Amino acid sequence: MVDTTKNTKLFTSYGVTTSKAINPDMAAKMISKAKRPLFVVGTGVLQPELLDRAVKIAKKANLPIAATGSSLPGFLDKDVDASYINLHQLGFYLTDPKWPGLDEKGNYDMVIVLGFKKYYINQVLSGTKNFSSVKAISIGRDYIQNATMSFGNISKEDNYAALDELIENL
Amino acid sequence: MSKLTTGSFSIEDLESVQITINNIVGAAKEAAEAEEIGPMGPTPFPGLASYRDDWNLVLLDRYEPVITPMCDQCCYCTYGPCDLSNNKRGACGIDMAGHNGREFFLRVITGTACHAAHGRHLLDHLIETFGEDVPLDLGQSNVLTPNITITTGLSPKTLGELKPAMEHTEEQLTQLLATVHAGQESSEIDYDSKALFSGSLDHVGMEISDIVQIAALDFPKADPEAPLVEIGMGTIDKEKPFLCVIGHNVAGVTYMMDYMEENDLTDKMEIAGLCCTAIDLTRYKEADRRPPYAKVIGSMSKELKIIRSGMPDVIVVDEQCVRGDIVPEAQKLKIPVIASNAKIMYGLPNRDNQDVDATIEELKSGAIPGCVILDNEKLGELTIRLTQEMHPIRKAEGFREIPSDEQLKEWVDKCADCGACYLACPIELDIPEAMKFAKEGDYSYLEDLHDACVGCRRCEQVCKKEIPILSVIEKASQKLIAEEKGWMRAGRGQVSDAEIRAEGLNLVMGTTPGIIAIIGCPNYIGGSKDVYYIAEEFLKRNYIVAVTGCGAMDIGMYKDEDGKTLYEKYPGGFECGGLLNNGSCVSNAHITGAAEKVAGIFASRTMEGNLAEIADYTLSRVGACGLAWGAFSQKASSIGTGCNILGIPAVLGAHSSKYRRALIAKTYDESKWKVYDARNGEEMPIPPAPEFLLTTAETWQEAIPMMAKACIRPSDNSMGRSIKLTHWMELHEKYLGERPKDWWKFIRNEADLPLAKRADLLKVLEADHGWEIDWKKKKIISGPKIKFDVSAQPTNLKRLCKEA
Ligand code: SF4
Ligand code: SF4
Ligand code: SF4
After folding, report:
1. Is B801 helix (H, G, I), strand (E, B) or coil?
2. Substitution target from A86, A141, A158 for chain B, most B beta carbons within 10 A
3. Which of B7, B590, B634, B724 has an alpha carbon within 20 to 30 A of A77's alpha carbon?
């Protein structure tokens, strides 16, 4: 088992609150428990090793995908429910309880994020953290302070292994 | 006495006393106001509240401030630090939203102050040198000062007549700065309104900075044929002495160039620069198109790289966007640093009062690492002579050589693969991986990092093995760097009235689908080619692409298969498919100025003191979108916010999320998408366009369709709408893989549909959205929420309506 809770050195943001470092099994449990989760993937997910795992996660947990940046083409032929939305816009809409969501069925209670530049996702999540009750779980290779829960700073290889464990536990 | 603005008088009993009045603060404005004639809008010489209710809150109601704090704490006063997380209030009473509004606002007024102070410096310097009466000859224009005019109501015609606008900007900046004090403003929305106001002043400060230099220093004057100049690290002839200038203020550099010319040195040494001084030195005396000899190295991201290359024999810095570690870095390679502007003195000794020979000796001997010289005459002579004398010395001592191959290998071998550099690198470059391959003899991974690396040195600061990582990357990229040679069109200055008249109709009709303004710094996400790709895509599609500053530089660095840069391939005019380099950062005022002129000249709107109406026109009718892809400096936030108040949306790169604020509309909230019809004051629904005033994109591929969409405006006619939709939908499909999901929201009748796909799209409207189609006539019978009325006059300002 990969220990994804070790290195939680911060990159950009600072202040008093930092996200809880978690292991893949815990992440899987949280995702399974969410009422209306949304899988938010950035352009970094187009790396084949990540894309493959992202598709498996979406399928296994039956998660709709918000494909931000230019990541959507990676999901078009994968038989998943993926829609394009700009990340900053999404971050803002998540803070509005009246947002109808990507499927017109209402806002989400949890976002699972993968495939981002850490400074960008961290910054956008600082908005949802402080101005909404949406929970955020980061399952990429960087420790994201402004998520609610996050893997620590790990290597690419450890990240792949952690994602595999997460998929198994879903 | 307050009516006396200039003059002198003597006091009789004290015959030796004479008092000269050059100017009384406020008197110039008063005199200017007294002279005012002609039409005038409601807000000449605006203050903190002038635009608030009428315009700013209207904008902020639709484009809501999106707050993404950089930190949960406020460390502003001694009551604190306070924990503001979850929008809690601090000990002073401010909440997190208010505090972050304040933080963003502080960035904006810092940027505004930089441009205003730059403008003041140049204005005073040029008046002192050439006199007050130098006419503002800026090319074929009657509207010389669009930003000054919509702000103050004035239309200055000479250098001296710019003073009231300058004073106004300075006075309002003081008022704005005061609101940052703990216990003043606490409302986030009011900080945003003040930020917008500051943004508008920023374009006044920039306008002053650029027009005074165009007028007095003989820069190209609204000239689409401004000469092409060389750009890139590879353009420097290493055999020649090299004077490198860095910063944003060209005043001192003109003396260096004059000295070179007087002493016949223009082909015997190199003068080249980084950042906007570089752009402006290539504009100096180019109105009559003498052969350009000054060169551009590139943007701020190249500052440390060029120093580490060892090539410069002397470095001169002026102001803004200049690194704080230039002296210690230059010292290692025995490069004297001359500070030429009182804003950056680096702790160096001032040698204004010493003769040039003695100072040259001090610097040559290394007794001092550099000095301050504010006397321009001395600066011109000293820097040129010193460069020539340092060159052989530095060459003999081996300082002009980059590290050896052995040294590189030694450094690479030291890497412990700890990953600390990856964690610290703001661009998230995988340095450890590149080091691993380099150890095995494959340096291509290191070479790949060069383009994206912004040269910040954060990696070196954390490396426990003390590897000079930046130098490693640069050494490994020597071949690439030697090939870094391109062309950039020297800044052309304003858009002329004639160009506006010729192009205004196309813009308002939509046959020219929009203006794309690419501005700003080099803190890109993917690498410096990002902006090239974006410019190329829009140029191919006949948008007008206006560029300035570091963006303008990076666009010129790349060539197509035939070896041509975009500047060589596309015309330099304000015309469909034109690529205009307006100039340095301060030339951004010409981009907003062009939009204002479309309203003023083309649509005959009163410009004087009438910002809201002009901005409302742009937001409703002129398809324009800015891109500040690498916005790094505070000036970028003031420039962007200035565009926003003027009705121009802007897309920023992902790093700019660190500015803590965006302005995004809720596309799903129909109550936000209504304007008035100025003919009768009735509310009319509009499509959700533009859907943001300020936001970020993750990749250049995402930015392109976002910008094409942001050029859609409520009052597009059917032909314009159909052209704009064609581009947006094609670009969305090309870069994001499928047709956008919300395209149908923009359709008012069948004529709005993109021509090539009309039948296909009608089917979709019928099948997916339940619209009724008359298939015989290929007409939409019912379905659209928005009616199209050719003669409707959409406005966001109730007061402009007939029945109001
Ligand atoms: S300014 Fe207010 S919120 Fe900030 S530290 Fe002081 S008391 Fe706390
Ligand atoms: S100098 Fe370059 S590689 Fe080093 S941290 Fe800065 S951007 Fe990254
Ligand atoms: S910080 Fe230094 S030692 Fe560690 S991986 Fe980077 S270059 Fe190697």
Report:
1. coil
2. A86
3. B724
Respond yes or no on whether the N-terminal peptide bond of residue B81 is cis (omega within 30° of 0).
yes
Q: Is the CB of B79 under 6 A from ligand 1?
A: yes
With CA atoms as reference, the chain B residue closest to A74 would be: B737
Shortest distance, CA A33 to any CA of chain B (angstroms): 24
Biggest CA–CA distance in chain B, Å, is 99
Distance CA B437, CA B434 (A): 5
Residue nearest to atom 6 of ligand 1 (CA): B77
pLDDT of residue B23: 55
Answer whether A17 sits within 8 Å of B85, measured CB to CB.
yes
The total number of residues shown for chain B amounts to 804
Q: Which two tokens stand for residue B650?
A: 């802007």
Neighbour tally for B711: CB within 10 Å: 28
CA distance A102 to chain B (A): 11
**Does the pLDDT at position B605 exceed 50?**
yes
Instruction: Say yes or no: CB of residue B435 within 6 Å of ligand 3.
Output: yes
What is the average per-residue pLDDT within B149-166? Answer: 98
* Residues in a beta bridge with B676: B683, B795
For A95, the token pair is 């803070």
Task: Kindly report the backbone phi and psi dihedral angles of residue A83, in degrees, each rounded to the nearest multiple of 5, phi listed first.
Answer: -130, 150
Above 70 in pLDDT, residue B28? no
pLDDT band at A11 (very low <50, low <70, confident <90, very high): confident
Contacts with A100 from chain B: Cβ below 8 Å = 668
Distance from CA of B397 to the nearest CA of A (A): 41
In the numeric block, which tokens belong to residue A92?
């803002």
Q: Are B176 and B83 contacting, i.e. CB atoms less than 8 angstroms apart?
A: no
pLDDT above 70: residue A72: yes
Q: Got the DSSP string for B175-207?
A: HHHHTTSTTS---HHHHHHHHHHHHHHHHHHHH
